[in-house]
Design a protein that fits this description.
With 302 residues, this protein is an all-alpha fold. The chain is built from twelve helices and no strands. The longest helix is centred in the N-terminal third of the chain and has 36 residues.
């Protein structure tokens, strides 16, 4: 039986409330991002800053903030290519770990939707089985998004010399307009991709598919459920917009703005992302005729 969006949201919410441990992969993702940030900072300091301090026999404790910033800026400009390559490697390693955690979260949501409960063992099982394929899929989708840069080419060509344009923007007003149109088309292109590929990750993990098959399956489910998928996409985007509007409303008072910023981060990590994962997992399972957990067994639902 095909569930409407309201039923998916209601029953998905009930599944989430009984499986709050689905937030664990998202908490681990935040911790992973922090670890990789400090690893990158440590690499930069040890490889590029420490040798300069040692060579010039400088006492780091007597350096002013301006001198430290100048040293970092100089090291970055002199070793830009190596830093870019190191940054790419670090980013790919982070994406690999993030793919494991994302696959694990979907695996937990799948088990919870089918059986009524899940455990961290489901995260490790689904993550270990699908992380490489999900990583490759994310790379493919990223490359497709980057391919949209082609829409900026006519405007860049029309502008010509960027230095002259920055000095006198009116000299290439037509080119600037063309560039703005290209940017708008690129944004629209990315939005279309986000709707089209909304269920790709779920197809990959739930059905255990390779990247190409997952993209084909995700698009196939989208084609047969265009309006419901679009509504699910609006729900996901709507939650983000709602949180942003609250942030905008609280931005006029510094203390409240800082408090909301922290609260929004907590809500997004512990509530919003796990809940969205459960909703999309349930939607995909239902639209591919999978058997879902009988909510008649949830005594509090009826």
């Amino acid at each position: 039986m095909v569930e409407d969006i309201g039923t998916v949201v209601r029953k998905g919410f009930a599944t989430w409330t009984r499986n709050l441990n689905i937030c664990v992969p998202f908490i681990l993702e935040v911790l992973t991002a922090i670890v990789f940030f400090f690893l990158g900072l440590l690499f930069f300091t040890v490889v590029f800053i420490a040798p300069v301090i040692s060579k010039q026999n400088i006492d780091p404790s007597i350096l002013s903030p301006e001198e430290v910033l100048s040293m970092f800026t100089s090291a970055f400009s002199e070793n830009m290519l190596m830093l870019i390559l190191a940054g790419i490697v670090l980013f790919l390693l982070y994406m690999l770990v993030q793919s494991f955690l994302a696959a694990g979260a979907i695996g937990m949501a799948k088990t919870a939707s089918e059986t009524g409960h899940t455990s961290l063992g489901d995260m490790f099982h689904a993550g270990g089985k699908n992380f490489l394929n999900l990583f490759l899929t994310n790379i493919l989708v990223f490359l497709l998004a980057i391919a949209g840069l082609v829409f900026l080419v006519p405007g860049i060509i029309a502008i010509g010399d960027v230095t002259l344009f920055l000095a006198n923007p009116e000299s290439a007003a037509a080119g600037a307009s063309l560039l703005m149109i290209g940017m708008l088309v690129w944004v629209l292109y990315i939005l279309v991709l986000s709707v089209l590929f909304l269920l790709v990750d779920y197809a990959l993990v739930i059905d255990g598919l390779d990247p190409i098959s997952a993209i084909e399956k995700g698009i196939s489910v989208f084609r047969h459920n265009m309006f419901p998928v679009f509504l699910m996409w609006l729900l996901v985007i709507g939650l983000s917009v709602f949180l942003s509007l609250i942030g905008e409303a609280t931005s006029y008072v510094d203390v409240i703005a800082q408090l909301w910023s922290f609260l929004e981060f907590i809500l997004s990590t512990i509530v919003i992302q796990p809940l969205i994962t459960v909703w999309l997992t349930r939607f995909y399972l239902n639209r591919t005729d999978r058997k879902l957990y009988s909510f008649e067994e949830y005594l509090l639902d009826y």
